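Chapter summary example: a protein plus cytidine-5'-monophosphate.
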Amino acid sequence: MTVVIGRAKINLTLDLLGKRDDGYHELMSVMQSIDLFDRLIIRPSSELSLGMSLRSGVSKWLPQDERNDVMRAAHLLHKQCGVSCGAEIFMEKFIPTQAGLGGGSADAAAALIGLNKHWKLGLSDEELRDFAAQLGSDIPFNLRGGTALCRGRGEIVQPLPPLPPVYVTLFKPPRGLSTSRIFSTLNISDFEEGTSLKFVDALLSEDACMFDFMSNQLQETACNELPELFEFTRRLRDEGVPWWQMSGSGSTIFVLAKDKEQALRYRKDLAPLYWWSFATKTSDKGAELR
Ligand code: C5P
């Protein structure tokens, strides 16, 4: 049996630089792993199959066939590496879907690492990264995790020194947001330089507080799609919460806290009724064998 976890991420910055000929958007983003993860349990089998448990109120229905990111990763390795046996995969899902936390990418990264071991493929980190980039924009980041500046469509990952551990409280409304829909509703006026490089400068030089350079250029579009997000961000502003932002294409808003007590207090005091909320901290790892 092989057990592997895939961690969620938040985007500390997300700059939109333009639309590419392949339909994707050129972006720059400081991504950060957090200690919220899905777990895959892989057992020997002649067939390739996926089962899962979903936490109520967290994940809606997810496909268990080739449309699932775990199965996409498994089929890619199976085909490209000429594997003759199958695998029975069971996923315990804790990362909410349509949340901007990279849950599907975390699962695919975990599947690559887990099946590399289970099928004794002996793939190097570089080979795994190539498979990851074929599967999705964020998956190369999710393999390694930690703190990184991601460019291109997100698949070019430049590792950064780890942040000091920071506590993070996550808030997600019942409604999620589709990444492709948010990207498809962008206007040309949404593209501008952004703050990623300033964030990296502050992280490397320690001259300024890097969190003052957090920004997400998808946030306004997402708030226009979901008025409840707009309401919540107004509340955070009114309450004087210093560091908060939407992650990825939403619909999760994260708040940074100075310690565990403050993270739990934010959760208790700020979570709107029926919203999912979770207090966690940053991690310097992505997908990992357990
Ligand atoms: O690559 P991934 O499957 O994660 O992307 C999901 C969708 O998000 C893409 O189909 C595309 O519509 C949009 N996207 C984009 N530009 C990016 C990343 C994603 O337009 N850099």
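Key point: The pocket of cytidine-5'-monophosphate is lined by residues 24-25, 27, 136-138, 153-154, 179-180, 183 (CB under 6 Å).
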